[in-house]
Design a protein that fits this description.
Blueprint lengths: L5 E6 L11 H12 L3 E6 L6 H8 L5 E5 L5 H15 L5 E4 L1 H5 L1 H5 L6 E3 L4 H12 L10 E5 L2 E4 L21 H8 L3 E4 L2 E2 L10 H5 L4 E2 L2 H14 L4 E4 L8 H14 L4 E6 L1 H4 L4 H10 L1 E9 L3 H6 L7 H14 L2 E8 L6 H17 L3 E7 L9 H6 L26 H26 L3 H20 L6 H6 L29
Parallel strand pairs: 1-2, 1-3, 3-4, 4-5, 8-11, 11-12, 12-13, 13-14, 14-15
Antiparallel strand pairs: 5-6, 6-7, 9-10
Helix pairs in contact: 1-6, 9-10, 10-12, 12-14, 15-17, 15-18, 17-18
Length: 504
């Protein structure tokens, strides 16, 4: 390896609209730059010529790093890493992020991967680069696994570092004009905290962060968000926190600080309904006054039995209604995520959920629903049961590319049951869309017509009767699925298990 201190960081393209600059790579870049390295970020979602860009930029670099989530982006990561090894066989290829952390051994078996950085990567990546630059081995570099003569060496994990100990992400590396041209908005993903204290057994977050909630101080969040919004003329900041409302007084203080700053921008976050229910109506109104326009909630089911099986005892059905009401009163849009096909779920459980969905959608026009099939991500605690039910874990890195939101890999879900579920999901989406159309219309006649069109859809959801779906034939081209994070439409790829629907 030469003396170059240039480090190429790559996020492969992903399904759906561009969410914003890759925050994880920006955080790595902040630490690399502090250590004297020159990070260069390539966002495959933004740069359509990412293959050519990578081939050019790696010519004089110290390392090629790939950040990876489970799903289709794995295939592009494999392709480009093989290309890098072909062009520069001696260049270290380092994989990091959620998937390589949760499937480190399997990832390292690939001949194009030299090192896996596990969990938080900021300090680990800097240390391993310093070792390589000095011609030293990677033994005892906490937080990384590597290969020596084809054998995997597993170093101990690095103790978790508080967010406050890390340098700020390198926001100045973002070409906001390029993202605005691609999306029509000047927006930024931002992390005010990491982790969630709950132990939902389908969630990778609890495995990755070990239920540790690590927040920035209130003053830092307010100062950074308002400064970034003003400096880069942002119209929206989307918090990527797993559960922003874990500390309700802190969340209220952040909202108050943003409102009082007089810096105007929209912002959004994810949370659980039980936490919003701890807030008063005035505190929820304060969120709206500070610029909060959308909140995503991981409600997942309206069946108490299914929720218990998910280890989600903190989710109560009445909280869904209270959350919808408080947010409606404040003028905040809401997305309730739903998971269907969870192991052990029966038709009666789905009917319970659909009945609640119908009630809420009829009563609250600010609520949308994002229904998904259960996705068996790596490392989740429920895997022993999944294997007992006949689900096999993928045998290779490439096989994990098939595990995607919307893909049905569930052996217990098929035939007539799957057909009925697919139809019910489409009716949930259709109802949400009709509700939004009625709410936004300025015409009394159109609102009346939409209301009449809703009636048979509501009846079907309450009765769980989906035969002869003539309403879907009329509305097929207008159904969309929406992101829990920001309420925007998801891509066709993410909605592919709903036949013949479009997704904006």
């Amino acid at each position: 390896m030469g003396r170059s201190r240039r480090v190429i960081l790559f996020l492969p393209p992903y399904s759906g609209p561009i969410f914003g600059a890759p925050l994880g790579l920006l955080s790595l870049a902040g630490s690399l730059r502090q250590a004297g390295y020159e990070p260069y970020i390539i966002d495959g979602a933004l740069d359509r010529n990412w293959r050519e860009t990578i081939a050019h930029e790696i010519q004089d670099s110290a390392c090629f790093g790939v950040s990876l989530l489970t799903g289709p982006m794995i295939l592009d990561a494999i392709e480009v890493s093989r290309m890098v090894k072909r062009l520069h066989p001696g260049l270290p290829v380092v994989f990091g992020g959620w998937h390589p952390t949760l499937e480190s051994t399997q990832t390292l078996r690939e001949d194009f991967v030299d090192v896996v950085v596990r969990h938080q990567g900021e300090a680990t990546l800097v240390e391993l680069l310093l070792r390589l630059e000095a011609g030293q081995g990677l033994d005892f570099v906490a937080g990384c696994w590597f290969k020596r003569n084809g054998r995997i060496v597993r170093n101990p994990d690095r103790p978790a570092m508080s967010l406050a100990q890390l340098p700020s992400p390198a926001y100045d590396l973002i070409d906001f004009d390029a993202y605005e041209r691609a999306t029509g908005e000047r927006k930024l993903p931002y992390a005010a905290s990491i982790g969630c204290p709950y132990a939902c057994n389908y969630c990778t977050d609890m495995v990755y962060y070990n239920r540790r909630f690590d927040p920035y101080e209130t003053e830092r969040v307010v100062g950074e968000m308002t400064t970034l919004a003003a400096r880069y003329r942002l119209t929206e900041i989307a918090l990527v926190d797993s559960n922003f409302l874990v500390d309700v007084p802190r969340a209220v203080a952040i909202a108050g600080g943003i409102r009082d700053s007089q810096v105007h921008f929209k912002w959004s976050f994810q949370a659980s309904t039980n936490l919003l229910c701890r807030m008063s109506a005035d505190e929820v109104k304060l969120l709206a006054e500070s610029g909060v326009h959308h909140i995503g909630f991981g409600t997942e089911s309206a069946s108490p039995e299914v929720l218990r099986h998910m280890n989600k005892a903190h989710q109560n059905i009445p909280d869904m209604y209270e959350t919808a009401a408080k947010c409606a009163q404040a003028g905040i849009r809401v997305t309730f995520n739903l998971i269907f096909g969870f192991p052990g779920e029966e038709e009666r459980h789905r009917r319970e959920t659909l009945r609640v969905v119908g009630d809420i959608a009829r009563e609250f026009g600010n609520v949308s629903f994002s229904p998904n099939l259960f996705t068996p991500y790596p490392g989740i605690p429920i895997w022993p049961e999944l294997e007992q039910r006949g689900l096999r874990q993928p045998d290779s890195l490439a096989d994990w590319a098939r595990v995607d939101l919307g893909a049905n890999n569930l052996p217990w879900l098929g035939g007539r049951s799957l057909q009925t579920l697919e139809r019910s999901i489409r009716y949930v989406l259709l109802h949400s869309r009709l509700n939004r159309a009625r709410r936004k219309s300025q015409s009394r006649l159109l609102r009346t017509l939409v209301h009449l069109a809703e009636a048979p859809v509501v009846w079907r959801l309450k009765q769980s009767l989906f035969a002869l779906p003539w309403e879907l034939a009329l509305a097929r081209a207008t159904i969309v699925r929406r992101s829990l994070l920001n309420g925007r439409p998801l891509s066709r790829v993410l909605a592919r298990y709903i036949p013949k629907t479009s997704a904006g």
